[in-house]
Amino acid sequence: MTDKLENKKIDDTELVNNGTKLELSEKVRKNICNRHQFLQGTWNFERMQNGGWAFAMIPAIKALYPNKDDQVKALKRHLEFYNTHPYVSAPVLGVTLAMEEERANGVEIDDAAINGVKVGMMGPLAGVGDPVFWFTIRPILGALGASLALSGNILGPIIFFVFWNLIRYIFLWKTQEFGYKAGKEITKDLSGGVLGKVTLMASILGMFIIGALVQRWVNVNFSVVITRVLQQKETFIDWANLPAGADGVKHAMEMYSTYGANALSPEKVTTLQDNLNILVPGLVPLLLTLGISKLLKKDVSPIVIILALFAIGIIARLLHLM
């Protein structure tokens, strides 16, 4: 074998072999980019986009790991939980490709490092993708196409379809390449602990994002009544004796603005959830999240956990606990 660059055919992929160092060719990376467009093709409630992610990684896995057992291990590694905006996932994919490439070349990069970088990047990038693509670019192109279509111009839907997919594909390819080059730079200085620091920072950032999302997305409301107190007449709306017309509406709105929801009823009801919110806001959602995390670490199936949560919620609702 000469020291010159040569392309080796491995299954349906091409691998650049530079001496003893393996590098993914541009053809393979474009194949991965094309597959990455189907990221949400097998979306599921257990691990969300993991199937589409693994599907995109297959060309790289085949090229970098000729041994069948190594291919199986790599595929299992990329079937872990993954979920982010489907377009800003491209730089995460690029960094992951670079790390897998270095691992195939003998660099000591374990599964935890690869998955840690993936999890650490997917959370923050997901928050960027929605406002940029769903709330800015797509509505602008849609408005342009709709305005032309309303005037009877056939170019309206064509312009929307062509420009949207052109922007989307260029962004996917360019950001994947950016992530790939950035990932190669990260893995160059392993002696200085750069990869370890990046993994640590990514993990911390990922946990920070998850912690912030717990309060926003996990909602537990105990409706058990603790106390019922009759309020003074001045603090609630006397619906039977409201002034007629606009004056009555104005009075009701002023009372609600002053006393809040308590003004809607002569009784002030305090629930268990009200007391919990006063003492430690967000305590129950946090405990629920930590408990589920503990079950997942013990290899309890996410499907079983989801079904159990459904059952608990239905039973608690029937018993008027929630």
Question: What is the topological layout?
Answer:
Blueprint: E1 6-10, E2 13-18, E3 21-24, H1 26-36, H2 50-64, H3 68-77, H4 89-104, H5 111-150, H6 155-188, H7 194-217, E4 225-230, H8 246-259, E5 267-271, H9 272-279, H10 283-297, H11 302-318
Antiparallel strand pairs: 1-2, 2-3, 4-5
Helix pairs in contact: 1-2, 2-3, 2-4, 4-5, 4-6, 5-6, 5-7
Q: What's the quick description here?
A:
With 322 residues, this protein is mainly α.
Structure description:
With 322 residues, the protein is mainly alpha-helical. Helices cover 63% and strands 8% of the residues. The protein has eleven helices and five strands. It has helices at residues 26-36, 50-64, 68-77, 89-104, 111-150, 155-188, 194-217, 246-259, 272-279, 283-297, 302-318, and strands spanning 6-10, 13-18, 21-24, 225-230, 267-271. It has a three-stranded antiparallel β-sheet with strand order 1-2-3. α1 runs antiparallel to α2 (50-64) and α2 (50-64) packs antiparallel against α3 (68-77). The radius of gyration is 28 Å and the shape is extended.
